[in-house]
């Protein structure tokens, strides 16, 4: 049975949610599930904006068919050629013989890489700024390269002022009946997943996101329809300002996150001592994570959120403890920058983890490593306690400034 929601009188959400998938991109845990959004515009001509993942094909096709109510499907706009959005192209071509695929030159290169389809006479290639009139709705196409993938474009509908934003402004999380961000407590229940989605999926491409935001700032937008998560029709500034901060790598909160790795508990002890000292010094809402038991996507999102990041790691086979190394490597790969850093190392015979972490930070941009770098020899003793205290004072001075 169909399950749809109206975005407006003539725009229908025909997507579906998956609450069974454990790992998005086979990487990121999604305990709250994920939605695959697709939108149908009903006018003299009908147009679908993207399709869905194969996991929800049955529901999706039923939604499309019901919403068309016997009308032909004229256009499929392919904003993004990633398989979680384009898995139903072949199925739609078979079911709707007059369907024309709309994409840019890169889109169609990707279509033929992924699929073996005879598209003769069934494609319309658009360029930046091109328009497509459906009747009372007119679509405008804007390229947004690397706002996840190189072929990405966003589509703006001028009459209703809707931006179909592809993966931009999306979030992990299934849609539990609610389609609109104003129907849920977004700040409480969704923001962490929206941030985790952005930072891990699109975080690397801050420059490209900034370019897209600049381009879109010329448009009057009333509604944002992303390919995952809720639709935005109120308080768009809230979301746009988050994207502006994230894509400029500006911390969202003046806050401290402490990330530690520990096998036998002594590095953990140092992290706890530091956290307690910071709390006594007046720092609120300290975040403290064991990197071995916290998914790296959560760690990355917290590193994007907080201004002050402390990394405490044992030396392991003359290197940085592997879980911490992986996290730092990921952070570098995602271009995180512009943070204040504290470092704590541990080692029994030759501690080198701080030096190696410092090397990793020197390869990132604008990472300000505070002195002192704390060295622990196996367990915290008076000398390392004094160094921890000095680091705490430096963080307090910098964080409350
Ligand atoms: C497999 C393994 C490799 C290690 N390699 C080093 C090393 O290369 N250099 C060093 O100084 N300590 C090394 N250590 C010792 C730990 O870094 C040290 O015991 C540290 O205090 C552990 O901190 P924790 O109590 O937080 O787990 C190693 C320990 C293990 C288990």
From TrEMBL:
Source domain of life: Bacteria
Residues of the Flavodoxin-like domain: 256-396
Q: Which SUPFAM superfamilies match?
A: Flavoproteins, Metallo-hydrolase/oxidoreductase
Which Pfam families does the protein's record reference? Flavodoxin_1, ODP
Return the PROSITE patterns for the record.
Answer: FLAVODOXIN, FLAVODOXIN_LIKE
* Signal sequence bounds: none
Keywords of the record, alphabetical order, are:
Electron transport, Transport
Q: Which cofactor does it need?
A: Fe cation
Q: Name one GO molecular function term.
A: electron transfer activity
Sequence similarity: In the N-terminal section; belongs to the zinc metallo-hydrolase group 3 family.
Q: What is this protein called?
A: FprA family A-type flavoprotein
Give the source species: Gallintestinimicrobium propionicum
């Amino acid at each position: 049975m169909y399950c749809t929601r109206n975005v407006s009188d003539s725009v229908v959400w025909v997507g579906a949610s998956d609450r069974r998938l454990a790992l998005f991109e086979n990487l990121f845990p999604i305990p709250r599930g994920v939605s695959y959004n697709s939108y149908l515009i009903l006018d003299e001509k009908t147009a679908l904006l993207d399709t869905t993942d194969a996991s929800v094909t049955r529901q999706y096709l039923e939604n499309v068919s019901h919403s068309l109510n016997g009308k032909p499907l004229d256009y499929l706009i392919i904003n993004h050629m990633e398989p979680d959005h384009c898995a139903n192209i072949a199925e739609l071509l078979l079911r709707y013989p007059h369907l024309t695929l709309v994409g840019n030159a890169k889109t169609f290169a990707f279509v033929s890489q992924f699929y073996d389809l005879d598209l003769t006479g069934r494609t319309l290639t658009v360029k930046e700024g091109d328009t497509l009139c459906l009747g009372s709705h007119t679509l405008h196409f804007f390229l947004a390269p690397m706002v996840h993938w190189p072929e990405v474009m966003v589509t703006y509908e001028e009459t209703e002022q809707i931006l179909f934003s592809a993966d931009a402004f999306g979030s992990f999380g299934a849609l539990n009946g609610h389609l609109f961000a104003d129907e849920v407590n977004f700040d409480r229940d969704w923001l962490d997943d929206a941030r985790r989605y952005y930072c891990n999926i699109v975080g690397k491409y801050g420059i490209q996101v900034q370019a897209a935001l600049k381009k879109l700032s010329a448009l009057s937008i009333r509604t944002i329809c992303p390919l995952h998560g809720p639709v935005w029709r109120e308080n768009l500034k809230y979301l746009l300002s988050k994207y502006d901060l994230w894509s400029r790598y500006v911390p969202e909160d003046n806050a401290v996150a402490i990330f530690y790795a520990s096998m036998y508990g002594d590095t953990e002890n140092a992290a706890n001592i530091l956290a307690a000292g910071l709390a006594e010094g007046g720092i609120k809402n300290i975040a403290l994570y064991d990197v071995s038991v916290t998914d790296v996507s959560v760690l990355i999102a917290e590193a994007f959120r907080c201004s002050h990041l402390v990394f405490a790691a044992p030396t392991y086979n003359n290197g940085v403890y592997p879980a911490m190394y992986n996290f730092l490597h990921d952070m570098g790969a995602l271009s995180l920058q512009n943070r204040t850093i504290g470092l704590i190392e541990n080692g029994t015979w030759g501690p080198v983890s701080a030096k190696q972490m410092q090397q990793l930070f020197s390869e990132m941009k604008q990472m300000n490593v505070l002195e002192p770098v704390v060295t622990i020899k196996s367990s915290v003793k008076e000398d390392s306690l004094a160094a921890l205290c000095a680091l705490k004072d430096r963080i307090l001075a910098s964080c409350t400034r």
